[in-house]
Design a protein that fits this description.
The protein contains 1 helix and 8 strands. It has one helix at about 1-20; strands at about 25-30, 35-45, 45, 60-65, 75-80, 85-90, 100, 105-110. The strands form 2 sheets. It has a 4-stranded mixed beta sheet with strand order 4-1-7-8. The protein has a 4-stranded antiparallel beta sheet with strand order 3-2-5-6, with no helix packed on it.
């Protein structure tokens, strides 16, 4: 019985570590009215496809997950806004990013 419990606990720990290793986060729009229309990452010399399936209005958020943690920790990303254009940023994804908060100017994360 004790060995079975240890095996189950080991499995749960491994599963939670696997989930924690992916770059999963929430993208929050904390602007005063802007709408986010695009989120792109830059790797291997080019910008990715748009990671968003829909627009994110002010006060809304969306769950995002790269489903991988391979590659560089510091990956540039681009946020595109309706009627504004786009801005480029960098973040160290290996620091355990849980939330990205887009603001009227710049961003923050935790």
């Amino acid at each position: 019985m004790e060995q079975r419990l240890i095996l189950i606990l080991g499995f749960l720990l491994a599963a939670s570590m696997a989930q924690a290793s992916d770059y999963a986060f929430k993208l929050h729009n904390r602007s005063s009215g802007w709408v986010i229309s695009g989120f792109y990452t830059f790797q291997n010399g080019s910008w990715s496809r748009n990671w968003l399936n829909s627009r994110i209005g002010a006060g809304q958020f969306v769950d995002m997950d790269w489903n991988s943690n391979e590659g560089s920790c510091v990956v540039p990303f681009r946020v595109q806004w309706v009627d504004y254009g786009a801005e480029d940023f960098k973040i160290d994804w290996c620091r355990g990013v849980s939330n990205i908060f887009m603001r009227d100017k710049g961003f923050s994360w935790d």
